[in-house]
Amino acid sequence: MEDINIALLIDADNISSKYIPVILSELSKYGKITIRRMYGDWSQERLRSWLGCSAGYSLTPVMQPNNTPGKNASDIGLIIDAMDTLYADSVQGFCIVSSDGDFNKLATRLRESGKVVIGMGEKKTPESFRVSCERFIFLDVIIRFVLFLQIHGHPPYKNVRTGVVSNYKRHGKLVQELFFKKTIKKLKKKLAICKTIYYNMSCVQGNATQDMRD
């Protein structure tokens, strides 16, 4: 996929702010993120973490007051902005970040208009939304994978151009290296066990032969 202009639209009501580095690092592989917006009712205490890191990642907070209990105002605001951006024809791709399945119709509409649609969310995201996107990325899986790399001596590095701390771009090679090392270690262990068994069997067979001669 060639580099394209992408609109990043985040449903802050349904995704954790801890995923911001992962979101930006993964999305930068597909193109230039020209629009960065996050939607939520910022008067709510649980969304304060998003506001705290919005400036550092150049995210534009879009206030969506939740006046009706039980209704998610962020969904409506995000959908309206997505359609406005579609008709403005300023981007070639959209990234919708949410674990909510209500965006499947939006993703389908954008895709039918010839736009690249990338979805991001957790594994709990309904299948209806996941299959509506051209590509879907599980953020919680990547986080666990990064922790795995750090535990095994592969700390994240800082991208000089974007300032994003990540090691996701190298993960394929690192997985192969780790898998190879673990496989060799297992084979050596099995070989040592086989040698021990063979030695013990040889000793037993030798003793038995000696007894028969005696």
Shape designation: globular
Order of helices and strands: EHEHEHEHEHEHEEH
Assign a percent range to the helix content. 40-55%
Biggest sheet layout:
6 strands, parallel
- What's the total number of strands? 8
The radius of gyration over CA amounts to: 26 Å
In the predicted model, the low-confidence regions spanning at least 5 consecutive residues are 157-177
What's the pLDDT, averaged over the residues? 76
General description of the model:
About 10% of the residues have low confidence. The N and C termini lie far apart (79 Å). The longest helix is centred in the last third of the chain and has 43 residues. A six-stranded parallel β-sheet has the order 3-2-1-4-5-6, with helices on both faces. Strands 7-8 form a two-stranded antiparallel ribbon. With 214 residues, it is an alpha/beta fold. The protein is built from seven helices and eight strands; from the N terminus they run βαβαβαβαβαβαββα.
